[in-house]
Amino acid sequence: MINRFPLKTKIFKLSFFTAFILFLVACSTKKDTFLARNSHALSTRDNILYNGQIGLDKGIKEIKTGSKDNFWKRLPIEKMQIIDDNAAAEKTKNANFELAEAKATKAIQKHSMNIGGQEKNYQIDEAYLLLGKSRYYDQRFIPALDAFNYILYKYPTSDKIYQAKIWREKANMRLGNDAQVINNISKLLEEKEKEDKKKNGKKFKKQVIADANALLAASFLNLEEKDSAIAKLKVAERFTKVNSERARYRFILGQLYQELGVRDSAIYCYQSVIDMNRKAEREIIIQAYAKKAQLFDYQNGDKDSFVKTYNKLVDDRENRPFLDVIYYEMGVFYDKQNDQELAKEFYNASLDANSPDVYLVASNYRNLGNMHFKNTEYSTAAKYYDSTLVKLDVKTREYIHIKKVRKDLDEVIEYESIAKEKDSILNIVALSETDRILYFEKHIDKLKKSDEDKKIQEEKEKETLANIDRNNINSVDDPAQSKSGMPAKKSSVAPPSMPGASGNTAANTFYFYNPTTVAFGKIEFKKKFGNRALGGNWRLSTIKTDAAAVSDTTATAKKEDAKEVEQYTTAFYLDQLPKTQAEIDDIAKKRNFAYYQLGIIYKEKFKEYGLASKKLEQLLTYNPEEKLVLPTMYNLYKIYQITDNAKAEEMKARISSQYPNSRYAQIINNAHPDSVSSNETPEDVYDKWYKLYQEEHFAEVLAKLDGLILQYSGDEIVSKFELLKANILGKLQGLEAYKNGLQYVADNYPTSEEGKNAREILTDQIPTLEKMNFSPVDTKNWKVLFKVGKFEDKNTKVLQDKIKKFISSENVQKLTYSFDIYTEKENFLVISGINSERYANNIAGIMKENKLYKVAEPAVVISNDNYKVVQIKKNLDKYLAQPKVDPVVPAQPPVVPQSPDVKQPTAPGATKQMMPPGMPPPAGQTNSPPKQ
């Protein structure tokens, strides 16, 4: 084919080739040409970075909408929820930030023109900035820091240099380098001031100034320098162009002033947030109202204006999502004015609003619990506190405090119940026979009325249920009407008494699908067969079976009726009253102890001195047992010291005159002037003396304890000293002294851990120890005792050397010896490891008769089990009074190997006595005085 336009073809080919060459040159990142620079910059900005910025904006929006501010605490400057390391490992990555990072990386890799050590694509600094921001919001702060540093290193003349510096310091702040942030941003702002003085200098954008000062404020707050933070935050609030940031900065300023106690400035800042109206988010405006309410002056404030403002907020439809906050603040307002009815109403309304704020829900429950607590409605208060604890963070102090109060309430509820029950019984017992009958007749009348009301209610409920069932039956397919509304054809399957349908087929309704026919069939079955038990061969069952079943049912019903009737007789209640004086005394004793416990709990745990004095005063009118009288009077004295000095002096005189030799009289009259206070804390003093107790310096510790108890009278540490004293008395004086000491601790400190521990030992262990007695059973573990004085005495040392010599030269078995404390003045040197009574007697004989020893002190041979009893009850004299077998002296002493291992005695504190559970323990045992 002949080409008619050869010239045009050549021009086209040449033009195409030229354009292709130019395209290749433009696409090259190695050629520094005008076309290449602008081509790559245009592609970077309008394609890759554009899509990356969209992803970043979406991710930031998700963060702001997903991050829930906790207005109960100071808001962070930047709305961003930082996730800890453990949670970060499980956190799902944000796809938008991944996209932004991927786009920034692509722009750098594909369009970077690094020629001769300089970047020729003026959009690459934007790519690095996008890369750093995406990593920052993804909470990978170190990689973000690398990206921002690269901009500062490679592009010092970039128009984004100030933004890069600020973002670098934001990453540094997140890494905890607050001092470095303050230093660098301060230099940046100084640089800004210098540039402002130059006519041709770079001008800072207002938003850059706002961001820099906001960052400084955040760093100052991290260092708890609130005054400096306030100054910088004010500048940020003035320069920012973003209304949401301005509202946030004003709110934080209000919180800071509130923390510093500058009430007027705080109110001004919160009001400035409110005045922004629709320029700010509705949530932060409502929270500003709430903060203003917390600062309301209940003495001089305009209460009518407050109520009017909050009623207006309630009526505003825009505030419906925040009614939980509004109702809560109104509840607090009325609670502070002791208007409990309205306060309860608004607290409950706040709860009904189903608030997503968990702490707000907890606060509603807590305040309701506090109200019931003040009204001494402890059972109800406990329920509200339970609900509060479910909503609170277990790591907070508030949780620990409320949990402690809740635990104490258990004791109050228990003892209040006991006191009420026992008081009721004793009051009835005190009535005459006629009055008792009248009392129970009134009770029976109330019971009958209550039961009648219950029956009427049950009948109504049954009737309602029957109507519901009847309506359900009628709502099922009516055989008289088809689904189309036309009369239905009669079923061919019908009850015997009903005429069958003529001309119907088997396609009609099945018998058991029709409730009417089923109900009719049941009636016809009962007419024909009567009541039949559910089981096999029902047709062959005799009627007797059914009659027996019916008879049993009737008998049961009669018994229940009889039981009900029995509760309507006075005899039913009179028979349950205590008959003997012993039973009445036991009830009175329990009542008195409950009153005492309540008085102590109200005094010690809740500081409710009015309730405490009321219970204790009432207890004294009941003539309680002697062990409760003096502690009750002493505790009343301590209460009166706080509430009524005149009564305190009167009670002091009463205790001093009636119980002059008691420890309480010594305490209130300061009978131990030698008690010297020190700079040590009570806990340090207790630790020091407890350590000596562990080292078994019992007499030394006991001599100091009374003075320490007097010195720290009224302090919680006293119960520890008292229990320590009880343990030492048990060590030195025996079981009876130990029991009395524990009883004293249990009676006088019933709500402390020491008091509870003492009560538990008295109940569980002391009865077992009291039953212990000497056993005549021969055992394989015997001891030889020598009664001695103190460890440092000369005679003790001499005897110890003789025993040591005997064990080293005369030992057939591997014997040991020890120094065991017995009483304050008497102790034992004990030879142990003996496997028979006969060998023990031989040792005693040798020690007495052999010229190498000639021990004048009489030896006591005793089994290990009986030695425990001696140590527990301190009754060696009783053991020695039993018939004993004289020691047998062998003709020749046994030949033993030389130099066996000998257990060397140490100071008294190094030797541990063998004591059963419940006895005053050596250090380290489970029933030692609690060391907290």
TrEMBL record:
UniProt name for this protein = Protein involved in gliding motility SprE
| SUPFAM superfamilies reported for this sequence | TPR-like
Q: Does the keyword Hydrolase apply?
A: no
Q: Any transmembrane segments, and where?
A: none
Superkingdom, according to UniProt? Bacteria
The UniProt keywords, alphabetically, are: Signal
Write down the species: Flavobacterium fluvii
Q: Which residue ranges are recorded for the region named Disordered?
A: 462-500, 889-932
Signal peptide start-end: 1-26
Q: What PROSITE patterns would the database entry show?
A: PROKAR_LIPOPROTEIN
InterPro entries with a match to the protein in the record: TPR-like_helical_dom_sf, TPR_rpt
